[in-house]
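Researcher: Please generate the 3D structure of the following complex. Treat every line as part of one assembly.
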Amino acid sequence: MSEVLDRPEAGAALKVVGTRPIRPDGVDKVTGRAAYGADFAMPGMLVGRIKRSPHAHARILSVDTRRAQALPGVKAVVTAADFPNLASEEYEAGESASNLRDISCNCMARDKALYDGHAVAAVAATSAAIAEEALELIEVTYEVLPHVIDVEAAMAADAPLLHAHLYTQGLETRPDKPSNIAKRNRLERGDLEAGFAAAEAVVERRYVTPAVHQGYIEPHACVAVMAADGQGQVWSSSQGQFMVRTYCAKVLGLEASDIRVTPAEIGGGFGGKTTVYLEPLALALSRKSGAPVKMVMSREEVFRATGPTSGAVVEVKIGATRDGTITAADIVLKYQAGAYEGSPVGAGSMTALACYDIANFRITGYDVVTNSPKVAAYRAPGAPISAFAVESAVDELAQTLGLDPIALREKNAVRDGMKAAYGPTYRNIGYVETLEAIRDHPHYAAPLGPNQGRGVAVGFWFNVGGESTAAVHVNEDGSAVVVTGNPDIGGSRASMAMMAAETLGLPVDKVRPIVADTAAIGFSMLTGGSRTTFATGMAVTQAAQKIVADLKRRAAQIWDVAIDQVEWREGEALRLDKADTPPLSLAAIAAQSARTGGPITAEVSLNAGGAGPGFGAHICDVEVDPETGYVTVLRYTAAQDVGRAIHPAYVEGQVQGGVAQGIGWALNEEYIFDGEGKMENAGFLDYRVPVASDLPMIEPILIEVPNPRHPFGAKGVGEVPIVPPLAAVANAVARAIGVRMTSLPLSPPKLRAAMDGR
Amino acid sequence: MSQPHKTHISAVVNGDPAEFLTDPGRTLLDALRDDLGLTGAKEGCGSGDCGACSVILDGRLVCACLVLAAEAEGKRVETIEGMAEGGVLHPLQQKFLEHAALQCGFCTPGLLVAAKALLAANPDPSESEARYWLAGNLCRCTGYDKVIRAVMDAAADMRQARVA
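Model: Done. Output below.
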């Protein structure tokens, strides 16, 4: 194993944390052996397929499955009638609450199809060809209804209504009519009017961002089997096996103990695999057919029926005095939720001004249902959208005032002890350090050529903790196993093994981390919210600390001394009262475990609080082709406070990957719907995510302001990096062409038109 | 439904003779994954846009989802499963690990096969050449930075090994 100590000053205290070992699951993943959702197979397995609504909004008058069921080779057909009609019930899951009835109805439409691609029936057959033929034989009678996708059109009083029962929450008085506005939220501080009266420069703009998809390369996939005794098993690719178990149990009306979920390797999630689409259907088909059922989505289905994140309109009015002190901000955010309520507008509102110390502000958010796929979490859900608006406006404010954009942000920056716009008081944050890092970086002073521009933007994400379980088992030869319940999306097995190895005093290659199924480890919330290295890492470390305490007790027993005469150092027990006693290694103690109390093992379950919020500051250089309007990203530098990088290479990878997704959002990506509400670009050819030739190297700067509430100082790192790039790119383009672009993506035709209008 | 006529295919897969029966419309990707149990090549799109199913067919880099299984008759197919030789990782595989050039790992087999084809065609690619060659392989996790570094580093090592 190659091991490079890249930070010798940290290496003095820590031997494993902060190094870059090869990840424990690496060889499986470079040899094709790692088994993802679609790679699992069972004998006698059937193929499941889904019949989807071709209408964006329609009442389902009837579903006739008789001809499909009669087709030889078809073993089961299910519709909404095969699932319990659940009552509306909020269920707290990870980053946000979900409504179980909505999850059920999203998996299988009941009464109404609410978007093009909404599932209306599913079949299981002995081959894919037969299953697809069966779909054609299912006769669905629809009453097509007017549809609405644009967020502001959906808010209009005369808009087609998606849900007759939906009344806007969060208003001063209960509305007397249903609406597509599910909720209004508001954050306020100070005196807005006085704040704007004190302002000497005001920027007021309306910003538009399209819906974009998480774009994980692995389509959703699962195998499910329901045995005759009512015991179900699921193998699936998701961000949380416990989440899959809970949702399947609820949607099917089963007990959690009736379902065991084994996590497959996950081929990307970015928040998009924090819910279920296929698993309950596969279980229902298996229950009906008596055989295992495999379901794998096509890419078109992934685009039409999963994810995306909200399209939005954000209005910003922001004012400052001549010296750059921001005196007031008024922000209105309108986010698409898709077919069911629950857009990330709450997080978008809370993060909108999280980097700024502003005396007077008002932030108003609207969660709006629309005839498009129900949105799913996407990396810092909601935050990139509000940051695009606020960071664009702040950049324009800097231009108006003739101030350096970094200096303007430093002047108004939040610091330790200040109260965040969303409530709590900041502690141990490293925001100003990220601004200083980009200000002092050679990139910021590098010369620019013609048609080139440089943009700066900042971003914030809360990061979360939450419930996690971890077990550490010491093997008979002194090596160890770390067991957690969090799917490894981007290298978390490595960081879990490293934190355990550091605590036990073992080399990291003596610690094997595994991700266990729902019957093999205690509950853990899903992998999301940048919580795994923080919360599950805390559980791992505490379990390893329990092992160390146990090892000291055992060593004391072997030596027949008091436990306070034993110290654990670098993987060995040392006897303090007789220093010449040879130390007892972990292996030596493990070999005698039967005589000191049996197997050496510890499990810790906790609900981690105290996650440290994360901040990032980015610089982006672009060149805009004056002929075509095509934008080339020339250079990108991203500073981020990461608390403590457990495995710096994978932390850098999170930063680079988040930036790349943000650049895609800024330049290329968007959901395009036709007049009937059908997605026109449901494939990677027309929904263009960044490819290798679109991007430069992305330089991460890791700032380490440790979080004292984590044993090694870690903060979540995965989400912050997607927050600044939308504005960083747009600000660079604005400075390159001299026109402020307020609508994403910054596609060549839009830029051409803007340049023609100069 | 009448059973479609199946064709018997003989090919050489990762150096070994392989045989399977296939429907005329079946893709090489499905045959590799479902008939031969070689699930290293992934289906990310089924339309040749993502490159996760990249394999080398008679020396040419192809998307296995765009090739009919029947087209493999008499041909050599190289997949990710054949890249390490006798338990020793190919330099590209080793460099991907050392550079942390993968996160979820789903696109990794396709990227590795495509990178191998690149270095066969051009042992000394510039960064730009590597980026354009690999532009057919989508990776959503890494932003490509560490992927490109790993490919360039492996290329340098392989050139040195050839000289030595």
